[in-house]
Every structure is written in structure tokens, then in C-alpha cells.
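Supplementary material to the annual report.
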Amino acid sequence: MSKGFASSFRLVLLASAVLLCFASVGVRLVHLHVLDRERLVSYVDQARKSVFTEQARRGDIMDVRGDVLATSRTFIQLGVDPHVLREEDSEHWPRLAELIGLPLAELIGVFNHTERVNNAGEIRLVRWAKLMDEVEESTYATILELGIKGVYGNRSYRRTYPRGQLAAHLVGFLNRENQPSGGVESFADFYLRGQDGWRETEKDGRRREMAQFRDREVPANDGFGVVLSIDSMVQHLIETELAYIGETYTPAKASIIVSDAESGFILGLANYPTYDLNEYGRVPMEIQRNTAVTDLLDPGSTFKIVPTAAALERGLVTPSTRFNCSITSMEYKGRVRKFMPDDHSYDHPLSVAEIISKSSNIGAAQLGMALGEQGMYDAAREFGFGEPSGFPLGYESRGLLNPPDQWSALEITRIPAGYSISATPLQIHYSMAVIASGGELLRPQIVREIRDATGETVYHFGGVARRRVLRPEIARQMARMLVGVTEDGTAKAAAIEGYEIAGKTGTAQKLIDGRYSNRHHVGSFVGFFPASHPEVVVTVIVDDARIPGGGVNYGSTVAVPAFRRIAEQLISYLDIKPLVAPEAQPRIAMEGTHW
Amino acid sequence: MKKSTSAFVSEFMLYLLLLTGLNGAVWMGTVWMRHQISETAEFTKQTESKLVAVERRLAETTARLASEQSPQTLESKNHELQLGLVRPAELRIVRVAESPERRLAAKRNFQIFTEEVSTGEASVQFTFNEPAIR
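Predicted assembly:
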């Protein structure tokens, strides 16, 4: 028989004590986990469980070269709890004042302002006093390094537009409530906004997250980047030109559009007046509107390309067909129709090419009569008038083009000359682009690519033709005739040596109080180059420019010189080759050689 | 042979203590493991927040860079620093119609054959040295 190392009594006592301990622990566990479970679990859930939202970063908007036009970044609102400040930190106060650009006396004033009286007359402690609204991350890091207790910031994401007013009417903005307003910000919001993530986790008594208790985690998906077709440099060129026009002629408004002749993608679009996207709140809604898309005007003589091209397309005339443009009226469908007078008289019947180059209202009206009301209306519709162009940004106007049964007797003489019809600058631009593209009506597009957060291209947009309007040979004939406008017509000032510039001027009287005014005009020039192989289409429209000396705002007065300045800069920037290489004049490359 | 009660209790107690010790060791191991998990999780959290901070600084730098590279800023810097840079004008551009390589080669060959050959002074002269191996 073996003998134990302790007496039975002691062993029983020890065993009982151990069992009792276990039993008491067991009882407590049953109490906590079974009997009082509901209350304790809800308490713990409330005190410890929390759901954190991970904010997705809104995607960037870039130009065609990848330069950032809109981006999201954090700003810190810096403040202080004056009750937590320590005397020993006061040596760093001057540096803090310097960093946030606040006079030291003012800073100390904020620090000493520890109490306030509320509306009810009660004294309250100031636990947060704002020091600065938008502190940058780098500055905030320096401030934290100072170690001033009680000075801290609250971080928030903000949309910022590093290029200020560049392409303001195209980019749009995100308002204070983070709601997109206009432009690409609104149109591409689906791609840009991304998807917020979240995680369920627990926090400790000091409200710090205990990362080991993260239950579920859904990562945030940052928004896609949107690459536009506009080129910052082209955009800057036209905005500089608009600023010059605005300063010199103080027009009511003005628009310049530049697009790729082949694909229809917009390279630049700007309006005067414009605004800084970072200060959208300070400008009226009127200025925020993209007037090139929303506002209507009579296209004037730029519309004459429509009856001319349509008459050529239908085989009714050839470029050499002549019309008597010295008459004042003509019988049409049994009634005498009076023409709009021309600015000049002609000693010979004008050919179709001359009607375009001399911009004859009488000639255009006769081309319209040759087409007939329905033919004229159909031609205008084919060129995109009276219907939305499909431009995705802003509230595009469809223009005004009444069906023929609503036309008055005079309208067959007015509409071919660009009156009694209203269109947006964009519609006027793309009607000319029909000829530049070789006969196709292109859809105005602005978004080139969608890129994911890593920069990989997710979707690429290509040029879209809405329909074919003219046969390519008719488009070429039209282009040749339009070169005549700059060689021997109303826009000689647009000609550039070595380049074939095709285009059409327009001067439309403005409707003031229901009557066409002799003092207020919309001057325009729409052109493309090189005419034989078009690369860019440029439109300049200036509404109600005040010409020094009291002149008339003809298309040739303001719009044509502006077009020429833009064209010259586009030629060197886009490296558009001249039709015939000018005689090589070695100046730089061969300098200092024996060549 | 029948075991006495005290021997049984002693043996039971021994096992109980061993079990308690084992249990304690297991729980200590579990606690240590949980501590390691929480430390790793905390480290991951800190790394994440560092990453987020870097991304924030990156966004700030991107925005600042974009602002500094804007044509408007560059033009004002050009004016401010009096650099005198101007946009290229068509008049100052020489367009080379033919192949630039061919033209440059022709220029080089022209120099060789006109200057050196015509004057009889070749730029490369061949001389006969003593044999290297004697």
C-alpha cells in the first residue's frame, strides 16, 4: 500500500479549496455570460464597438498631357484649447505666429481668451478657438514639431484647382457640401467620386482604436481619374487672347473654341468673362455659365456655308455658277421677296465661290431659294442646327430653328444669311467642322480617358461622327472656296504665309427690344487650317465689342485678328507644317559652319 | 491490492496540479499570442496611418507642382525673374524638310573633304613603328 505525502485531512481541505475557487469562478462566469449577458454585451458594444468610415479619395481631372486640373487634398483647420496651454511652451509662440502668418499679439490675444459669454449671459469656457482655416500638411507637421500643448488641427478633404481659372467652364467645381456643380466635376461624378470604405472595430477607454479587434473591413475604392482632351497650353493661349479682347474691347461676352479637325475632340474652350475655380463663391452664376454651350446668337454670315454646301451637295450649283447679286428683290413662289442688302455692290454676277468670299447676303438668299424652304431647313438640321450637339457638359441649348411651315415670307431670304435662326457658339463651330472633317458632323467630346487609381487606363474614348453631311469631294470644294475668304475676301487679315487658312467671317446685328440694332453686333470668325489637310478648327465669337473710335464690331475687326494670333501660336505649338516648306533660311542650325 | 484513500487523493491532487499548471501555461501562451497579435495589429495600424500621411503629402505636393507648372505661373515667373523667354514664333523656326541625319552627315563630310583633303593635311596620320616583338 502506498502512502500519500500529506495527511488525508489536509488533502481534502486543499482539494476543497481549489474546487471552491473553480466553482466560484464558474459561478461568476455563469453570472456574467448567461444571467447578465444582455446588459453587459449592449454596454460593451456601446462603449467599445464602433464603425469607422474610410473616405475614398476623389479622382483627379487631368488635361490631355496628364497635367492636373483638379485634385483632392487635405487641409487642416488649426485651433487651440486655451485651457491646456502651458507656460513653458510660450517660447515657441513667435514661431507659431510666423508659421500661420498671424501677428504675435493677435495670437496671444486668442490664447488669453479663455471665457466667453453666451446669448443667455452665461459664462462659458472656450475649449476651441480657431487660429487658421487652411493649414497645409507640411506646415502642420512643423507646427506639431513645436510641441505646443493645446494647439491641434482638424483634418478635412478639400477639392482644389491648382490652375485657377484655366478651363473653369469645362472643369466645374465641387461646392462646400461636396456636391459637383457643372462641368466635368458634375458629368463624370460617377467615375470621380469613388466608394467609401468602412471597418468595424473596437476602441479602448481613451477612445483609441484597438486594431486587433477589427472585425470586418471594406477598403475604400478611390475615384477614377478623368483625362480630358483639352491641352492646358492651348487653353491658356485662348484664355490669354480672351483676356486681351476683354481688356481692349470690353465685350458683353466672348467665346473661343479650338477642336481637333479629324476627331472632333475639343482642345480648348473658353469664355469671357471667366472666374477662378477656387473662388467660385465670389462670382455670380452668370459668369459660371458656359456661354459657348448655353447662350444663343444669330450665326450671321458664318451660316452661309450651309446653303452653299447643301446646294453643291445636291448638284444644284457648281463653284462657278453665277448669280446676280446686284438686285434688291426677286420673285419666289409667286411673291416678290426683298433681300437683305449687301455691304458692297458688284459689277458682275458673283460665282458661288465669290458669294462665300465676299459674303453676299443676296447670293446666299438665292442659294437658299434654289434649295427651297424644306431643303434649306433639312440642310440646317443636317449641319447640326436646331438640335443638341451631344456636348456632355452643362445645360446645352438646342438652338432655334423653326420648321418651314412656321416661316414668314421673308425668312427664305434671311435664314441663308444667318438671321432668323439662333445657335450656340458650339453649334456654329461644329457646322464648320463638317467641312474640315471631310463632310462628317462630329460629336463634340471632352473626355479622352478614364484611369484607375494606379494610373492604368480603364476606358478610352474615340472620335464619334454623328452623321455624314457632305461627300468628301464637296467638303474639299467648300474648303477651297473658304480659302478664298482669307486670300481675297472678308478675312484677308487671317491669312498666314505658307498656310492655307479656310474660314468664314460673320457679323450679326443683335436683337435689342425686338429690333435688329445698328450699333450692337456679334462679330465672329470660324476657320480651320491647313485647308487641304485640316488639323484644327478655331472659332472666335465676340458679342458686342466696343471698338475704339466708335467702329462696328465686324467679324473682321476683332475676331479675325484674334483668330490669326491664335493660329500663329497653334502652328508653332502643335507643329503644324506649312503646305509648302518656305525656302530654308539657315539661321540657327547651320550657324558657325562652312555650309 | 487496494490503494488507500490518501494515496488516491495525493495522486489526484498531483494530476490536478499538473493539469492546472498545464492549463495555466496554455492560457499564458494564449495571452502572449494575443499580445503579439495586438502588437502586430497596432504596428499595421501605425504603418497604415504613415502610408495615409505619405499619400496626403503626395497629394499636397502634386497640387503644388500642378500650380507651379501652370502656364500662368510660369509666365509670371518669367516676368518676375526677367528671364526674357518668349514663345516660338513662326519667323524664328527653321523647318528642315529633308532628313536631319543626312544633312548633318553631309555637313560633317563636307568639312572633312573640303578643308583637310584639299589642303593635304589629313587629320589622321599613319606611322610605322618598330615591331613590338623583337
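Chain A has 18 helices and 26 strands.
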